[in-house]
Amino acid sequence: MLSYYLETRLIMKKKIFYLLFLLLTLSCSNQQSPKWDFKSFYKPAENPVLRGDSTYTFIDPIKKEAVKWQKADVFNPAAIVKNNKVCLLYRSEDNPAAILGGRTSRIGLAYSDDGIHFTKYPEPVLYPDSSEFMKYDFPGGCEDPRIVQTEDSLYVLAYTSWNYKIARLSIAVSRDLIHWEKKGPAFAKAYDGKFLDIWSKSGSIITKMEGNKIVAAKINGKYGMYWGENFVNLAWSDNLTDWYPTLNVAGELKPVISPRKNKFDSQLTECGPPSLITDEGIVMFYNGKNSEGDDSDVRVPKGTYSVGKVVFDVKNPETVISRSDTCLLRPTLPHEISGQYKAGTTFSEALVYFHDKWFLYYGTADSFVGVAISK
Question: What is the pLDDT of residue 40?
Fold first, then answer.
């Protein structure tokens, strides 16, 4: 009888241990799942988190004079986590009297311990100079950066060089986020320079997570990058510097997504932050502009920039698995519907995983930097 009793208790203990183990496993699984949930973002009360400041000056290497390099506006940032800080590389403009697109842009650096309150580095870190690339980025400047890092912590910046004639997607690299080496236009070598002088912007390099670190990813031995501001194209590279766009049978750029009538992206689709390989596929936030005509989305004000999501197949990155029919983030705060672009803008360019949350940084009305955080 005693033997039976002890045996029964042993069986019960094993069952309880198994149930506790199962619950713990499920609990851990549930804790991990929000990592990939990009739907539940909120805008903290501290928005905007970055704005222009006319007290910051530096000696412009071309004009040889002091310039108030962020007097007008700051917006459209890149972001990376370094030394347990969020580092923003933000676009700044110097002359508030000039019209939209007629100023000089320079890229500044700011850092934060909490992802919300930032301290600015005193001078811009990437700007037009007298180097061989001056013909591409002067007088318009260096605009709209996106940043990734390699496994050995080389930082790669995809940004727009603007000379008031043609916008060109360009590349720069750094080891410390302060000193940058310009590599020139991303498509300069592709197909004998066929795409060097086309309008090109917005490079979303494909990344992956290694622990809590996001790094540039290779697919079939090459780096991939979505890019474009009307339709989106996919390009490939061996070195993160020289990129080769994918072409159709006619030798023309091949779209992977394009604008859709009567949706939030009815006028254009423009790449957002670096895309990310997840269990869903390759996730890319992108910026959609609503048309100002009859083909606009009636649920969104005409001309508005808002944020959508598309998922591509990892095995075939040109193939769309899913795409949001409605925008996931749109202008709702007063400063997001004022400033340079009054139709309203939430223009995403940066996504980091920080303190167990996702931080999505975006430009607001071409005037401020905002953030939305996952719950």
Answer: 81
Beta-ladder partners of 285 = 309
Cα 371 to Cα 328: distance, rounded to the nearest angstrom:
14
| Residue 49 banded pLDDT, cuts 50, 70, 90 | very high
Other C-beta atoms lying within 10 Å of the C-beta of residue 77: 33
Residue 99 is given by DSSP the state P
Which helix H or strand E contains 3, and what residues bound it? helix 2-32
Question: 22 or 315: which carries more pLDDT confidence?
Answer: 315
CB atoms within 10 A of CB 343: 15
Burial of 367 (0-12, 13-18, 19+ CB in 10 A): buried
Q: What's the confidence (pLDDT) of residue 4?
A: 41
Dihedral in degrees, nearest 10, Cα atoms 254, 285, 237, 182: 120
Confidence check: pLDDT of 31 > 80: no
**pLDDT greater than 70 at residue 158:** yes
Average pLDDT, integer, range 71-76: 95
> Cβ(286)–Cβ(257) under 8 Å?
yes
User: Taking a C-beta distance cutoff of 8 angstroms, is the pair 246, 236 a contact?
Assistant: yes
Evaluated on CA atoms 135, 141, 142, 143, the torsion sign reads negative
Domains and CATH numbers, the chain: 46-374 (2.115.10.20)
The residue behind tokens 């496994």 is 151
CA distance 317 to 303: 29
Burial class (CB in 10 A: 0-12, 13-18, 19+), 33: exposed
- Alpha-carbon gap, residue 314 to 299, rounded angstroms: 32
The mean per-residue pLDDT over the stretch 165-173 comes to 98
Q: Do 211 and 222 touch, CB atoms closer than 8 A?
A: no
Per DSSP bridges, beta strands 320-323 and 282-289 are unpaired
Structure tokens at 190: 């592709």
Residue 82: CB atoms within 10 A of its CB come to: 13
Question: Which letter, b or e, does each residue of 281-309 get, where b requires 16 or more Cβ atoms within 10 Å of its Cβ?
Answer: bbbbbbbbbbbeeeebbeebbbbbbbbbb
